[in-house]
Specification:
Shape: globular
Largest sheet: 6 strands, mixed
Number of strands: 11
Number of domains: 2
Helix content: 25-40%
Radius of gyration: 19 Å
Oligomer: single chain
Strand order of the largest sheet: 7-8-9-4-10-11
């Protein structure tokens, strides 16, 4: 029996007659890295916004660990363990890397965000914050002001802060967008590393990333599910090749 952590049933979002997401049935298996791909305008980000309740579905259901979460608010979704990278990616540029992670950890203290409290009262979080920084290879940057971090390292910091919220399911929205080759490789390896014992659903354009680390891929086109399966199967699907007219067959099928 497959262990499904997240499932959508006929998930639909309509904007004044335009079907942005059209009857999507998605099943994300626990422990998998699952990619949502598709041409521009396919409905990927809208789908993410529905899952985290930044948008309310027109119809359909969202189930998390078998429980219907369709009507729950974004904060409730986050508390249940679905954490989306951009939700906490408003890193504080003039705090250090370590201080940013510590703020993400404050939720666990039950003290809310007490910016007025003495910094010393947060010292108990330092050990956990440093452990998270080690997990994303940022130990040497702990005292660096976040504004001075290279772009790829900022994305690593976002992932560390996400991990601080102890997600059961991490949603990563285009984690390698705008990166050079070296940063893409580093962040891809990082995602693979932090996926141990976790489930990740990601929207990603880079086929090298998708082919390298994803267990399963769902392809959207015009808001509807076009194909689903392992990369090897999906990349050879004629419908997928046709949908990616801007992406050559060679790029799709030979992206390793």
């Amino acid at each position: 029996m497959t262990d499904i952590i997240l499932e959508t049933k006929n998930l639909t979002k309509e904007f004044k007659g335009f079907m942005a997401v059209n009857g999507v049935n998605l099943q994300v298996e626990r422990g998998h890295i699952h990619a949502l791909i598709g041409p521009n305008g396919a409905g990927k980000t809208t789908c993410f916004n529905l899952l985290t309740k930044f948008l309310v579905p027109t119809s359909g259901q969202i189930l998390f660990n078998g429980l219907d979460i369709t009507t729950e608010a974004p904060a409730q979704i986050a508390r249940q363990g679905i954490i989306r990278s951009f939700q906490i990616s408003a890193v504080f540029p003039h705090l250090s890397v370590m201080e940013n992670v510590r703020i993400g950890l404050q939720r666990k203290l039950g003290t809310s965000y007490h910016f007025w409290k003495s910094g010393k009262s947060l010292a108990q979080l330092n050990q956990r914050a440093m452990a998270l920084l080690a997990e994303v290879d940022l130990t040497e940057f702990a005292d660096t002001l976040t504004v001075d971090l290279p772009y790829g390292r900022k994305r690593a910091l976002e992932i560390a802060t996400t991990l601080g919220m102890e997600p059961e399911l991490m949603l990563l929205d285009e984690p390698t967008q705008g990166m050079g080759h070296e940063d893409v490789d580093r962040v891809t390896a990082l995602i693979k590393k932090v996926s141990a014992g976790r489930t990740i659903l990601m929207v990603e354009h880079n086929m090298n990333v998708v082919s390298g680390i994803c267990d399963k891929i769902s392809v959207l086109q015009r808001g509807a599910m076009l194909a689903e399966g392992r990369y090897e199967e999906v990349s050879k699907n004629p419908l997928v090749m046709e949908a990616y007219m801007g992406t050559t067959t060679e790029t799709l099928a030979g992206a390793h």
